[in-house]
Each structure stands twice: as C-alpha cells, then as structure tokens.
Specification:
Blueprint: E1 3-8, H1 12-15, H2 18-21, H3 33-39, H4 51-55, H5 70-77, H6 90-111, H7 115-126, E2 144-147, E3 158-161, E4 166-168, E5 179-183, H8 184-191
Antiparallel strand pairs: 1-2, 1-5, 2-3, 3-4
Helix pairs in contact: 5-6
Organism: Aegilops tauschii subsp. strangulata
GO molecular function: protein kinase regulator activity
Function: Plays a complex role in regulating the basal catalytic activity of the alpha subunit.
C-alpha cells in the first residue's frame, strides 16, 4: 500500500548546517523550537502543531515509552526550561534533541489526523509545498508526501500524485529523507476534500 508521510527524519547534514537552520532576521532568539524545527531544510513536510495540542496529555498517550528522554524532549519542544537544573553532556544533549525530533514526528502523525491538522496539510498541498508531479501529462499536479511502510525510519520518503496515482522520488532536497510514521488515512482524506 501507499502511506502518506507524516514526518521525515532529519539528516545529520541538515542539523549542522547553520545557514539553513538559522531563522531569518533578529527574531531568531524568539523563535519557538517548533517553528525552528519545521523551518529546517528537509522538514518542509511538517506543519506546526499548536502548543495546546501538545500539552494535552490525551494526545501524547503511549508515546513516553517510545521515546528516550521523553520528558526532556517534550520540554524542548514546548520551550520549557528545566527547573531541575540538570546539566547534560554534549552527547546527552544530542540524544535529547534527537528524541525531540522523534517525539515531534510521532505527535505530528496524530495531529494531522485532526481537523486542524488535515486543514494544515491541505493548505500545504494547495501551496505545492510537497512538490508537483514530474509527469508531463499531470500538468503540475500537487503531490502528497508518502511512504511505503508503517515501520518508523524503514523507507525513504516519496511523493504521491493523486492524478496518475503513482509514487515519485521528491526533489533532490528530500532525497534520502527517511519516513518516521505514515498513514493512509491522510492521503484519502486530503484527496477527497
């Protein structure tokens, strides 16, 4: 089956590229982690999730057992300073950052199944944020991000064209991007909209 991408895995090359990760202007310091993360090269398929959704424990049910450093990762996503005064090594900080990326992807997988999340993905689809079909006869049809597996990080992202109903490799900046979580429901929901 074909599964719509919910979140790509960040490439190490993108994490260290300060030019791409720098948010424009002098407002960089005031940018939330979510805005920063979604603006990174390779993360264009993500939409920004409302803090209220993330702070609702119901929406996070079962995720703590799937993500190492869960509490610290959640605090990082929500821009909450640790009140414990914990000091981490650089290696631990990298693990927490990686956990935050994974946690955001898992939350994103749930969020885009809500009406607000579907609306955000539909907007990205209409704005061609996921790219266009490379086939001439599809006349620039907007595509949806897609994966071929429900197993996290098991396949690279592709794009699905609803016109020719085929999977294509995305533009080169997404090549090699791993899928974290996919859902068929999103593709069907957006196409029928």
């Amino acid at each position: 089956g074909v599964y719509v991408l919910v979140s790509p895995e960040i490439s190490k090359e993108f994490e260290t590229d300060s030019e791409d990760s720098d948010v424009s202007g002098s407002e960089g310091e005031d940018t939330s982690w979510i805005s920063w993360f979604c603006s990174l090269r390779g993360n264009e398929f993500f939409c920004e999730i409302d803090d209220d959704y993330i702070q609702d424990d119901f929406n996070l049910c079962g995720l703590s057992s799937q993500v190492p450093y869960y509490d610290y990762a959640l605090d990082l996503i929500l821009d909450i300073e640790s009140s414990n005064g914990d000091v981490f090594t650089e290696e631990q900080n990298e693990l927490i950052e990686s956990s935050a990326e994974m946690l955001y992807g898992l939350i994103h997988a749930r969020y885009i199944l809500t009406s607000k999340g579907l609306a955000a993905m539909l907007e990205k689809f209409k704005n061609y944020d996921f790219g266009r079909c490379p086939r001439v006869y599809c006349c620039g049809q907007p595509c949806l991000p897609a994966g071929q597996s429900d197993i996290p990080r098991s396949s690279t992202v592709k794009v699905f064209c609803p016109k020719c109903e085929d999977l294509h490799y995305p533009r080169s900046k997404y090549q090699g991007t791993k899928t974290l979580m996919e859902h068929t429901l999103v593709r069907h929901s957006l196409i029928s909209s």
